[in-house]
Amino acid sequence: MSNVLFDVPGPRAARRHRIIGIVTVIGLLAIVAAVIWKFQAEGQLSYAKWEPFFTPSLIQLLLEGLVKTILAGALAIVFAVPLGMILGVAKLSDHRIIRWPAWLFVEFFRAVPLLMLIIFIWSMQGFPLGTIFPLVLGLLLYNGSVLAEVVRAGINAVPAGQAEAACAIGLRKHQVMRIILLPQAIKIMLPSFISQCIVALKDTSLGFYILAPGLTFAGREIYRTFQNYLQTAIVLAVIYIVLNLLLGLLGEWLQRRFGGESKIQMIGDVVQAQPEGATARA
C-alpha cells in the first residue's frame, strides 16, 4: 500500500518508528526531570519565589497589564488591517504615482527593525496616551506593511481568468477589485492575517523598552521588588502562550466560518469534497 506522498511503513518500519517514539519521549522526560532538579537545587522552586503570583494585589497588577496588552495589540491590528489593504491594492495600481509611494512605504517599514521604530517614535515625545501610543503606532506601521504584502500576494493568487471575465462584462478596474478579486483573496489571506495578529500580540512585549503599560511592564515591577526573574519570565510566557492559543482557536473558527473549507467524504473508492453543512445524497 502507498500514500500520495510516501509508502505506508511495513511491520519492521512501524516497529522501528514506535521504538524511536518511545526513546524520544523518555529523552524529553529526562530533560524535564533534569531541569526541575536543577531548579530545586538552585532554590528556584521555593515558595518565596512564587508567592507574589498568589498575592491579590500583584494578580490585579498582572490583570491590568494583560488588559493593556490586549488593548495595544487590538488597536494595532484594527488599524493595520485597513492600512495593509490600502497599501496592498495600491502596490497593484497601474498608476506609478500611486504604486511607487506605496512600494516605498511598505519596503521601508518592513525593513526597519520594530524595536528601533518604536524607540524612534517614543523619542519624539509629545504623543497622547503616554507610552502606549508609540508602541501601537510602531506595531501599526510594521504590521500594516507586512499585511500589504499578504494582500498583494492574495490578490495575485486569484486566477487571472476571474478579472478577465469581469472586464469582459464591462466592469471597471475598481469594480473588479472590490467585487471580484478582494472577496476571493480574503479567503486566501485569512490564515496569514491570523498569524500576523498573533505576531502583533507577541510584539507588544517590546513596549518593555519604553516602559509602555502592559504585561512586561507589570512583570518588571514584580521582579524588581522580589528578585524572581526566572519565575516572572515563566508566568509571563504562560500568559502569552494561552493568549496566542486562544487567538489561534479564534482563527481556526473564522477559517471554518468564512474560509469556505470543505469536508472530505469517501464514496466508494472516490474522494469527493463536500461544502460544510451539505448533506450527502444517496
Which helices and strands occur, and which strands form pairs?
Elements: H1 11-41, H2 47-50, H3 56-91, H4 96-111, H5 114-123, H6 132-157, H7 160-168, H8 173-203, H9 215-226, H10 229-258, E1 262-267, E2 270-275
Antiparallel strand pairs: 1-2
Keywords:
282 residues, mainly alpha, two-stranded antiparallel sheet, 2 strands
Helix content: over 70%
Strand order of the largest sheet: 1-2
End-to-end CA span: 29 Å
Strand content: under 5%
Mean pLDDT: 83
Helix and strand sequence: HHHHHHHHHHEE
Rounded radius of gyration (Å): 25 Å
Would you mind describing this structure in some detail?
With 282 residues, the chain is mainly alpha-helical. The chain contains 10 helices and 2 strands; from the N terminus they run H-H-H-H-H-H-H-H-H-H-E-E. The chain has helices spanning 11-41, 47-50, 56-91, 96-111, 114-123, 132-157, 160-168, 173-203, 215-226, 229-258; strands spanning 262-267, 270-275. Strands 1-2 form a two-stranded antiparallel ribbon. A hairpin with a 2-residue loop joins strand 1 and strand 2. Helix 4 (96-111) crosses helix 6 (132-157). The longest helix has 36 residues, at 56-91. The radius of gyration is 25 Å and the shape is flat. It starts with 10 loop residues before the first helix and ends in a 7-residue tail after the last strand. Mean pLDDT is 83; it is low at 261-282.
